[in-house]
Design brief:
Helix content: 10-25%
Number of strands: 5
Number of domains: 1
Distance between the termini: 32 Å
Number of helices: 2
Structural class: alpha+beta
Radius of gyration: 14 Å
Order of helices and strands: EEEEHEH
Strand order of the largest sheet: 4-3-5
Strand content: 15-25%
């Protein structure tokens, strides 16, 4: 299996993952990137309470990282991030965007 994205090699840990980050002040946002990178970036935005995986990007969202060439960033497909946090696949029986 090749680790090639946009015609350039990528390490698995560099692949874009989505995370739901909650802060001590009650705010939350979707971050994209490797867990270590997200931890550092989120800490700059406030005191982090939790960082949990999301199956897809969600709103509110910090700078989208997963860009698909001419098509732009991956859309925010997860409409219920507070319910879906901690999961790596969507628990809904049908798509939230239907």
């Amino acid at each position: 299996m090749s680790n090639i994205v946009n015609d350039r090699p990528k390490l698995v840990e560099e692949w874009c993952h989505t995370w739901w980050v909650t802060f001590e002040n009650g705010k939350a946002a979707c971050y994209e990137g490797a867990h270590a990178d997200v931890t550092v970036r989120a800490a700059k935005d406030g005191t982090v309470r939790t960082i949990k995986p999301l199956p897809y990007p969600a709103e509110p969202r910090t700078e989208p990282k997963e860009v698909h060439g001419e098509y732009g960033p991956c859309p925010s497909f997860c409409y219920r991030p507070r319910e879906c946090q901690g999961r790596t696949s969507c628990p809904q029986s049908h798509s939230c965007c239907d």
